[in-house]
Amino acid sequence: MHRRISKLENNYTPIQSSKVFEQIAQQIEKRILSGELQNGDRLPTERELSQQFHASRTAVREAMKTLAQRGLVDMRPGRGTIVIDGTSQAMRHSMGLMMKVGQAGSSENLVELREIIEPEIAALAAVRATNEQIAGMRKAVEVMDTHIHEADAYIAADNDFHRALATGTQNILILTLIDSIVDLLSEQRKLIFSTNGAPERGQIHHKRILESVTSHDVEAAREAMRAHLQQVREDVKNSTILKK
Question: Pick the residue with more confidence: 244 or 176?
Answer without folding.
Answer: 176
